[in-house]
Amino acid sequence: MKAKFAAAPYLLWAAFFIVIPFGLVAYYALTDLHGGFTLSNFAQSLRFAPVIGSSIWLAIIATAVCLLIAYPLAYLISRKSTGGQRTLVLLVMLPMWMSFLLRTYAWMTLLENNGVINRLFGLIGLGPFEMINTQGAVVLGMVYNYLPFMILPLYSVMTKIDQSLIEAASDLGCSPGQTLRQVVLPLSVPGIATGITMVFVPAVSTFVISVMLGGGSFMLIGDLIEMEFLGNAYNPHLGAALSIVLMVIILICMALTDMFSDPEEKEGLLL
Amino acid sequence: MRKRISLCLLSLLLIAFLILSTGGSCRLPSGVTVSADPASEVAGANAIDGSANVSDASDETSNSGSEADSSDTLPFSDDWDDYPYDEQYYSQLRGQGTSINFYNWGENIADGSDGFVDIISEFEALTDIRVYYTNFATNEELYAKLKSGAASYDVIVPSDYMVARMIKEDMLLPLNYENLPNVRYMDPAFMDPVYDPGSIYSLPYDWNTVGLIYNTKLVDEPPDSWGVLWDERYAGNILMFNNSRDAFGLTLKYLGYSLNTEDPDELREAAELLKQQKPLVQAYVMDQMFDKMENDEAAIATYYSGDALLIDNENIAIAIPKEGTNQFVDAVCIPAVAKNKLGAEMFINFLNEPTINAQNVEFIGYATANLAAYSLLDEELRSDPVLYPPQEVLDNSEMFINLSDETNLLLDQLWTEVMASNKNILSWGILPGATIFAIVAAKAWYRRKTALRHHYMTEDIL
Predict the structure, then answer these.
(1) CATH of the domain at B217
(2) Closest CA to B161 of B327, B322, B394, B406
(3) Nearest residue on chain A to B435, judged by CA atoms?
(4) Cα distances (angstroms) measured from residue B247 to each of A194, B307, B350
(5) Residues with Cβ < 8 Å from A244, sequence gap 6 or more?
(6) Chain A residue closest to B239 (CA)?
(7) What is the DSSP string of B336-378?
(8) Which residues of chain B carry a pLDDT beneath 50?
(9) What tens digit of pLDDT does each residue of B149-191 get?
(10) Model pLDDT for residues A180-202, shown as the tens digit of each residue
(11) pLDDT of B287-329, one tens digit each?
(12) Domain identity same for B279 and B303
């Protein structure tokens, strides 16, 4: 009884700010401009399949790059002394103290044709390289902004891996590669799953990065939704349908990553 | 280690505090320029207008001689003292504690900075009506706010096509011209616009055109046609509107069609042209245009002409193509939810006080439809072909009206097609599909492997 009572504030919160808004989104998605029931909004959102496809693809690349960068780093951090760990985690978090928009804006100045990086290359007689307004720049923006979301869950899982397990593995004749593959990797799977979800979800729904770093020509599903609500079209019905499509994509992604974590290993899943 | 971190944090906090405190003190002076006496304001207005008018005030006899030639072509007097406020009219609501809610574009009213008049506090002092001022960023935001019924405003400033849409949806109140004596100063050319036939619901606040902004260092001859946006020579150096209506508008103009066309074939033709243009475009941008043009990042950009005057680069020039362009108007209206209609009308009238209007348009950088205010502007501004293009350009130009829902939808679909063009299923579908398949396959393999391992384990035990 007591426990149920304690959950009341959150239940109220959830009802007002999650359940009711979701009901409104669903209502809009299933009605037309005159309020009648229709499925045409979903049929229309299928016409934007190229946009949806490329959003998923860019998000997958960004997630993979994040994982490749974050995994070794998280392992190194987790093997440090307690004080060292704290400093390094603080350094990972540091960029997040600054506004997301501002950081992306800074990348614009760096990557531009007459930007800082190209001018540095120019000093040694290279370039200029075309960096801004490419898909690579969009992926870079995603990786830069969401990397901490990959490092932190990985670190929090890896820090629980007992050092004696790794010692035992090498004691019993495992090469470092084998130790990694057979001890560390399986034990860190829940962290990988959480990390992938936490990077993929914001990356697939991002919308400013593609406008700022992609020159607006790599439209993502987030941009499309923004356009339906704040652009010339102002079609909240189509926008709501697209949001639901996005939610389905995210659900599928979570189901896919969820497949890899065994039920008893899920304690790391929610960080 | 912990000590070092806390030291770090402390110094960061200190820096943040320093930044905040200097920022605060910078903002202070702008708020101090509140004056309650209308008479002193007129004198103040004189001082603000620059050297020409300062000499007017100091030497009135020589003024009539030296500027006689130019002033007889002006529709109204160019003497700032000729436009005193009608005290009686403005004191109608004095002492009643009324207020109005004014909803405007960001940075779109003279607010006392840069030596301009602070219009809102001036109005509050004159009429004793409190003004609550809030901002919106897009017409659609304004529309969504009003449509949701969550907020009540008395004066709003939508653009032309949004005025038309709001009229169609009964969201505006007709203006009572008896309460708007300053309508006598308005340019008749703006008094029966396509978006509001008969000017029943709206009065123009400012107007401007869409132009080609170019960098004289990077462009050989001044462009005179939208065609330059399809010129291979400027491949990778073109900045295009990142908004469907404006992008399609100029393409339709280039093709010789109306920018309000509802004909799907004409719109498709424009979309084809935009797709052809895509490889030449460096980026589709809105306000990022400012930075890029300032740093010589691009040769040509499409944007609102008045804004181009704000680019801090001496090589920037503006051309208005011969095919004609989009002339847009921001108009003041009173929404149907208004609670203080008389106060709102007094405010609209005040915005059209020539002395106020002249300073306001100079501050926001667009053109005015108030002929008396126009007469008060400096010769330099009046003869600026960017702000006040020659009549033949305007004759070629069109204003946006609201399109039907079907056309809006088509426009949007075509725009997304343009944005997602040069892509077939091979480029957008295969890769994500393959990845998802790979993940599922990897999972199956992983499960089989674990099952096998468990199998061996049980065999070992047995």
Answers:
(1) 3.40.190.10
(2) B327
(3) A60
(4) 42, 17, 35
(5) A25, A26, A29, A42
(6) A215
(7) TT-S-HHHHHHHHHHHTSHHHHHHHHHHHTSB-SBHHHHHHS-
(8) 1-3, 7, 17-18, 20-71
(9) 778 899 999 999 999 989 999 999 999 999 999 999 999 999 9
(10) 888 898 889 889 988 998 999 99
(11) 888 888 998 889 999 998 888 888 888 899 999 898 889 999 9
(12) yes
The boundaries of the domain holding residue B433 are: 428-461
For residue A86, which residues of chain B lie inside 8 Å, CB to CB?
A: 1-2, 5
Asked if residue B303 and residue B284 are part of one domain, the reply reads: yes
- The structure tokens listed for B165 are 């849409």
Give one word for A127, left, alpha or beta, with left for phi > 0 and alpha for psi -120 to 50.
left
Q: Is residue B116 part of a domain?
A: yes
Are residues B306 and B274 part of one domain? yes
Radius of gyration for chain A, computed over Cα atoms and rounded to the nearest angstrom: 22
Counting as low any pLDDT under 50, the low residues of chain A are: 265-271
Q: Read out DSSP for B223-278?
A: --SGGGGG-GGGTT-EEEESSHHHHHHHHHHHTT--TT---HHHHHHHHHHHHHHG
B62 and B139, same domain (yes or no): yes
Show Cβ contacts of residue B228 under 8 Å, excluding neighbours closer than 6 positions. B212, B214, B219, B234, B300
DSSP code for B92: T
Query: Which residues fall within 8 angstroms of residue A105, CB to CB, at 6 or more apart?
Result: A212
| CATH code of the domain made up of A11-268 | 1.10.3720.10
Contact B113, B30 (CB under 8 A): yes
- What is the Cα–Cα distance from B297 to A102, expressed in whole angstroms? 20
Same domain, B167 and B47: yes
- Cβ neighbours of A108 in B, within 8 Å: 288, 291
B151 and B259 together in one domain: no
Give the C-alpha separation, B206 to B330, whole Å: 5
pLDDT digits (tens, 9 = 90+) for A132-150: 888 889 999 999 999 999 9
> How far apart, in whole angstroms, are the C-alpha atoms of residue A253 and residue A119?
40
Mutate to test the interface with B, among A88, A234, A259 (most CBs of B within 10 A): A234
Touching B: A residues 111-130, CB under 8 Å: 112-114, 130
Contacts of A219 in chain B (CB under 8 A): 416, 419-420
Residues B243 and B365 in one domain: no
Q: Indicate the domain borders of chain A.
A: 11-268
Q: Are residues B163 and B308 in the same domain?
A: no
- Predicted confidence at residue A233, as pLDDT, reads 64
The total of structural domains in chain B comes to 3
- Residues near B114 by Cβ (< 8 Å), separated by ≥ 6? B363
Give pLDDT, residue B48.
Answer: 37
